[in-house]
Amino acid sequence: MTIDESTPTLRRPGLDTQSASRWHRALPDDLAALLHNAHADEREALGPQRRAAYLLTRQVISGLLRAGYPARLVATELGVRSESIRTRAQAGWIRLSDIAALTGLEQDELARRCVANDAVVEDGRLFSDELVRILSAPATSADVPETAGGR
């Protein structure tokens, strides 16, 4: 084995290094707002709503980590340690209505983005792994169907 073969690579297979950075240096404002809104809802909710808000924050964190944002960066946004971000991340299905409430986007716009980007939506829910990709997608025109169906 040569030194080159034993050196770990930090790049994912198929990653387009010209258009995407593996190590993001800053959380875009819209994603930071999404994270802060989810965290604020969690702190303000009571009873069963608090449990749901806590899960939603975990799924937002998971979506950010899955998109390649480092735990250190997400932790800095929330003022916590990186270890707590890694342990809180939990992938899962997020209702489009919850995403709309946290982002200020219309639910129909989110559904159009999902359709335009071939994201699977089941029962009005999007999997957290697709969250950043859909929110980063450009706004769609109204001529795309308003409902997102599953594959």
Keywords:
single chain; 151 residues; mainly alpha; 3-stranded antiparallel sheet; 8 helices; 3 strands; disordered N terminus
Lay out the secondary structure.
Elements lengths: L2 H4 L22 H16 L3 H19 L4 H8 L3 H7 L4 E3 H8 L3 H10 L4 E2 L2 E3 L3 H6 L15
Antiparallel strand pairs: 1-3, 2-3
Description:
With 151 residues, this protein is mainly α. Strands 1-3-2 form a three-stranded antiparallel beta sheet. The chain has eight helices and three strands. Helix 4 packs across helix 5.
- Unreliable spans: 1-20, 143-151
In which range does the helix fraction lie?
Answer: 40-55%
Average pLDDT taken over every residue = 83
Strand runs, count: 3
Biggest sheet details = 3 strands, antiparallel
The DSSP helix count reads: 8
Specify the overall morphology.
globular
Strand order of the largest sheet: 1-3-2
Rg (CA only): 17 Å
Distance N to C terminus:
44 Å
H/E element string? Answer: HHHHHEHHEEH
- Structural category is mainly alpha
Percent in strands? 5-15%
